[in-house]
Amino acid sequence: MIERTLQAHFLAVAGRYPVVTLTGPRQSGKTTLSRMTFPEKPYASLEPPATRELALEDPLGFLARYPEGAIFDEVQRAPELLSYLQSQVDDDPRPGRFILTGSQNLGLLGGVTQSLAGRTALLELLPLGLEEVRRFGAPADDLYPFLWRGGYPRIFSAHLPPEEWLASYTTTYLERDVRQLLKVGDLLSFQTFLRLAASRTGGLLNLDSLASDCGISHGTAKAWLSVLEASYIAFRLPPFHANLSKRLVKSPKLYFYDTGLVCNLLGINRPEQLANHPLRGSLFETWVVSEVLKQHLHRGRQPRLSFYGERGRLEIDLLLEDGADVTAIEIKSSQTPSASFFENFDRLAERFAEQDPSMQRLAQRLVIYGGDDLQKRSGGTLVPWSRIDELPWGGPWET
Asked: How many structural domains are present in the chain?
């Protein structure tokens, strides 16, 4: 197995906290990373019913088996264990004693924040980032196969056909785990919801429209989407909020974490189908936004990401805030550079200048596109998609 980018930060926080909690979607590599990073620690998965029953019925006896600590996998299956773990680490707060993993953020974080507040570091492991795909020796020189394949590690480590593995993932994890959480009885309606949500990746989220198209209520759509978010399948990107204009868009945008999963849900069976697909631009935007997120989360950083939108006037695909400094990113799937890619940056700078300049400053202007040439222009920097991992996310940037 390759070294994951998160591993260095994982080791660092384990030297400071008695518990480290690692979350992320199913099959993102949490167990592999934990066991590879801490090979000396005993391992116990709470997925098997017998182990989970022991942890729930006799938590003190279960923990007594691991006086020096352990890796507890899928710990959200036994959330009651966390309160007993609290007393264990209070009595013996040696750093790095326990490593907890879980794939259902909603249930896991509720127990962690209640029982282990101040005692645990929280980390997130998403599917492979671009630099991690390279470590597998997989090519990153052809955009459409890259988007179509996605980033789940098992596809790369076992050399599995993406369409086969992702179809199984959808059936095994999405339709089983998520439906169990939601207690969904109507599988057909939920499958329709998944496909229609996937078709809206990269677009403004309109829950009323999504619910109507699925034939479900607004409340049901909201609940189903919340669990997709808690399971690290999808996420909402908030709009930029500042006293700049009364015309700012207030709805968030919807994204999926993995473009391979989106392709599978949409029935895109071959990468070459992406060349003329109406959602090609949305899929590329989805990949770039999720990749920027990975570049930060896999280094232990929580980025402040948003998008800028004035209804009918000005749009910027992605903003990254660092104090008063803002990096503005436009995302273009075209392989051919164009001066028009940079047109909105000056207008955004004007918006910032109209307010107190100390509040926001347009520090960097990037266009990430589907081509191959890196170009530094007067209006900003044109960055090929295949070099996004070379950018100094977290700074410092060249001036």
From this structure: 3
**Pair 205, 267 in one domain:** yes
Quick check: is 173 in a domain?
A: yes
For 387, phi and psi rounded to 5 degrees? -120, 15
- State the CB neighbour count (10 A cutoff) for residue 288: 26
Q: Which residues pair with 253 in a beta bridge?
A: 204, 237
b (16+ CB within 10 A) / e for 192-217 = ebbbbbbbbbbeebeeeebbebbebe
> Does residue 153 sit in the same domain as residue 119?
no
Looking at 60, 89, 124, the residue that finishes a domain is: 124
Domain C-terminal end among 75, 102, 124: 124
Joined together, the tokens standing for residue 331 give 């995302």
Q: Compute how many other C-beta atoms are within 10 angstroms of the C-beta atom of residue 78.
A: 20
Measure Cα distances from 364 to 162, 197, 250, 394 in Å.
36, 32, 24, 12
Q: Which domain holds residue 372?
A: 295-390
Examine the domain organization and report whether 356 and 216 are in the same domain. Answer: no
Q: Is 312 left (phi over 0), alpha (psi -120 to 50) or beta?
A: left
Are the C-beta atoms of residues 389 and 130 closer than 8 Å to each other? Answer: yes
Nearest C-alpha neighbor of 113 from the set 29, 193, 23? 23
Tell me the CATH number at 385: 3.30.750
β-strand partners of 234 = 256
pLDDT in tens, the chain (399 residues): 799 999 999 999 999 999 999 999 999 999 999 999 999 999 999 999 999 999 999 999 999 999 999 999 999 888 889 889 999 999 999 999 999 998 865 556 666 767 788 899 999 999 999 999 999 998 888 999 999 999 999 999 999 999 999 999 998 887 777 767 776 667 788 889 999 999 999 999 999 999 999 999 999 999 889 889 988 999 999 999 866 655 788 899 999 999 999 999 999 999 999 999 999 999 999 999 999 999 999 999 999 999 999 987 899 999 999 988 999 999 999 999 999 999 999 999 998 888 776 778 899 999 999 999 999 999 999 999 999 999 998 767 764
